[in-house]
Amino acid sequence: MHIRIINPNTTVSMTAAIYHAAQQRATLGTTVSASQPEAGPVSIESHFDEVISAVGVAEEVLKGEREGGIDAYVVACFGDPGLLAARELTRAPVIGIAEAAFHLATLISTRFSIVTTLGRTGIIAEHLLQQYGFSHHCRRIRAAEIPVLDLEHHPEMAFVRIVEECCRARDEDGIGAIVLGCGGMANLTQEISREVGLPVVEGVSAALKLAESLVSLGLYTSKYGDLAYPRPKAFTGKFSGLSDLELPLKS
């Protein structure tokens, strides 16, 4: 089984960290690879960033489909940018890390809180909770108020702030689990869980395991209804290379 992890931002070191976290969790026999868009934001912290990065996610799925042999994709940003568009482009399962984390958190607790990077990204997470139907499971969305790239540039300080928010969530929110709200936190799960004493769900690992399960069960993205392949049509300007694109690219 081959699972491709797509980091929707363009920071190489974050892609490497996400890949390492996924590889550690992969079942023996699962091949994990990672990619990132050639162009786009270095971090994703706004609706604008997400729109730009969604194009990159779609392009990475198309590259994977041209390569062939990829059984599932993981979109490794907590905003799940371009998730439905990516699912249109392939029969392989495509898992967003926020949706995966929400699902797994509800299997081990009746209530969870999210600890994310910036307050504004917490609002985006709130929209996803509503969209996915998990609002009644989430007690609170908390922000450590650190830029995403501080996870790379100032890891010690970032870790302390994240743990502080997780401890507040444990003590004040009446929860049974914590969901980490950023793909860049993928390598912090066990350390945070030890510090806080609660189960900590991180989306990259959650999505990887769900992807492995779907592939093992022979389940794929439905091509009936709104997730059917996009109809070939003309594109203009810098997207002209997508004109009359015939999907699937490989059988």
Automatic annotation (TrEMBL):
Q: Give the UniProt family note.
A: Belongs to the HyuE racemase family.
Q: Which domain of life, per UniProt?
A: Bacteria
- InterPro entries reported in the protein's UniProt record: Asp/Glu/hydantoin_racemase, Hydantoin_racemase-like, Iso_Racemase_Enz_sf
Provide the protein name.
Hydantoin racemase
Q: EC annotation? A: 5.1.99.5
Q: Which reaction does it catalyse?
A: a D-5-monosubstituted hydantoin = a L-5-monosubstituted hydantoin; D-5-benzylhydantoin = L-5-benzylhydantoin; D-5-isobutylhydantoin = L-5-isobutylhydantoin
Q: Which GO terms describe its molecular function?
A: amino-acid racemase activity; hydantoin racemase activity
